[in-house]
Design brief:
This protein is an alpha+beta fold. The chain folds into four domains: 96 residues, no CATH class; 149 residues, no CATH class; 181 residues, no CATH class; 64 residues. Strands 1, 2, 3, 4 and 6 form a five-stranded antiparallel β-sheet that branches. Strand 3 and strand 4 form a beta hairpin. Helix 7 packs antiparallel against helix 8 and helix 17 crosses helix 18. The longest helix has 56 residues.
Length: 549
């Protein structure tokens, strides 16, 4: 362990103790050595005893910096793990980071390009356009075509800092797991592992560039979403170059209203975008918070979204997609029994769950929603309530569904902000019904057959030989079966004959012995004994050999 790691570890412990995070551990589960360690750091006292636990955790993460802030943001979506107070506090975390020196940014960009900035770009702006916890954005103009672009570059040594913090988080999570014991609901080690996967994915800007290109291609002909063009030849692990697009932040409602934007259409398109990404493309933007979404300035009567920052993308398995679509439709149709069955069939809750009890719990969550005005109904919060309900029935957390839930909350939040009367039911239900019909109808069958055609076209020349080989194999198997049957019948005949002779010999021997003991006429007794002995000999010789047929 390096000196820097030790210093960082001490800083994390000091911050945790200053905010009294150690006091949140159950005293009866805390090992004695933890108490002794805490006592040895007597000069580090809780300075925020007047604040609630969730607020103290939020403030501690803010003080520890970007990596912990992002962890808090992720935890705020885990309503299956945290109660409402803690989740709502963590949801208020804001990732606002001062920019780093532009000279360092220039060095990092030129190191990736292996060329001076001036050789490829004009009007490079040293003042960053935006600054976040992992990266920083600068503007420039491409010399090759005169297009305005943005250059996204990772912060200096951010990989090492994140690796050190992840190591500390893993150690803390493993320790906490041992303290809480098996069966605890928080599962800290699992949470940190999910977080590790997410944040390490954001450190590879080449991967983000590929994600952005794929998302752009999925919506090339769309009037709902525009993804800026990515210059892949200028993208590397620590640098990404893309088209600069001007837009209005989606959270700036006043500016959108001032230009006459059709907010109702915009909100409905947001919902359609979510379901299209999930069910049509199975590739959805999983970080659609307001900072990553802009609205076009052109055609305010026919507005479209501008999507940025494709570092976190989500996918679902085919079975998850189907179960999810059926869940939505069952909810729209108020079929709570089907919702409960789907949760169990999909493995999202334990197979030992009491179906009737779970159905009643789901009904208690969902039914009140249908008695409220549209502008008071939040489908995202219904999902949160369902997670909370399922928690009582041993829900099995699916990381890809957590990403999906977070995305839906973002989308619905944006939609409500843009147009409070947004009718999620009316917007989403036709899409889902159409998608389900495409999955199970004749068209779906035709599409599956068409998708298999290249495979069968490749195998078709081999088909006559395969048929002939299988017919010969079948003939051989039939011959082998007949031989086995004949052997079995011979075995049975020998066994029956041997048993008959042995039983008869036993009867004759018993009869001869009885007659001999009576001392009457001797020749019948001797005859019975002789015949019994002979039949026993024949029966013994007639038995099947080796016990096999």
């Amino acid at each position: 362990m390096t000196v820097a790691s030790i210093k960082r570890g001490y800083q994390v412990i000091r911050t945790a103790l200053h905010f009294g995070l150690d006091e949140m551990l159950p005293q009866h589960l805390t090992p004695r050595y933890v108490g002794l360690l805490r006592g040895s750091l007597f000069w580090l006292r809780n300075k925020h005893k007047d604040k609630a636990g969730g607020e103290r955790l939020k403030l501690a993460m803010q003080e520890l910096g970007p990596v912990y802030i992002k962890l808090g943001q992720m935890l705020s979506t885990r309503r299956d793990l945290l109660n409402d107070e803690w989740a709502e506090e963590l949801a208020m975390l804001q990732d606002r980071v001062p920019p780093f020196d532009s000279a360092l940014a220039r060095q990092a960009i030129e190191a990736e390009l292996k060329a001076p900035i001036d050789s490829l770009f004009e009007a490079f702006c040293d003042e960053p356009l935006a600054s976040a916890s992992i990266s920083q954005v600068h503007t420039a103009t491409l010399k090759s075509n005169g297009e305005s672009v943005v250059l996204k570059v990772l912060r200096p040594q951010v990989e090492q800092k994140i690796a050190a913090d992840l190591k500390l988080m893993t150690l803390a999570a493993n320790l906490l797991e041992r303290v809480l014991g098996e069966g605890n609901r928080l599962r800290p080690a699992e949470v940190i592992q999910d977080y590790r996967t997410t944040i390490l994915g954001e450190l590879n800007l080449k991967l983000e560039a590929l994600n952005a290109t794929k998302l752009r291609n999925n919506f090339l002909d769309s009037d709902a979403l525009y993804v800026p063009y990515v210059y892949e030849e200028l993208c590397f692990q620590r640098l990404m170059v893309m088209e600069r697009v001007e837009g209005i932040p989606v959270s700036d409602i006043d500016a959108l209203k001032a230009q006459g934007t059709d907010l109702k259409l915009l909100a409905e398109r947001g919902v359609e975008l979510f379901f299209t990404q999930v069910f049509r493309d199975n590739f959805f933007h999983a970080d659609m918070h307001p900072g990553n979404i802009f609205i076009s300035r052109e055609h305010p009567h026919d507005p479209y979204y501008i999507g940025l920052d494709c570092g976190i993308m989500g996918t679902l398995s085919e079975s998850d997609k189907r179960y999810l679509a059926e869940n939505f439709l069952a909810f729209f149709n108020r079929d709570y029994q089907r919702i409960a069955q789907l949760y169990i069939e999909s493995g999202w809750v334990s197979g030992n769950t009491d179906l009737l009890a779970f159905e009643q719990a789901v009904k208690l969550v969902c039914e009140p929603m249908f008695n409220k005005p549209l502008d008071e109904i939040s489908f995202g919060h219904v999902l949160l309530e369902l997670f909370r309900t399922a928690r009582r029935f041993d829900i099995v957390v699916q990381p890809q569904l957590v990403l999906l839930e977070k995305t839906l909350l973002y989308i619905e939040g944006l939609g409500r902000q843009l147009y409070p009367q947004l009718d999620l039911w009316q917007t989403a239900k036709p899409f889902l019904e159409r998608w389900m019909s495409e999955q199970v109808g004749p068209k779906a069958m035709f599409d599956k057959v068409r998708g298999q055609m290249p495979y069968w076209a490749d195998k078709l020349p081999e088909l006559p030989e395969l048929v002939y080989d299988n017919l010969k194999l079948g003939e051989k198997l039939l011959g082998s079966q007949q031989q086995l049957l004949d052997k079995y019948l011979r075995y049975q005949r020998k066994s029956h004959k041997s048993n008959y002779l042995l039983i008869t010999s036993a009867i004759l021997l018993i009869c001869g012995t009885i007659l001999l003991s009576q001392g009457l006429i001797l020749w019948p007794a001797y005859g019975s004994l002789a015949a019994g002995g002979l039949l026993w000999l024949l029966g013994w010789r007639a038995r099947p050999r080796g016990g096999k047929f």
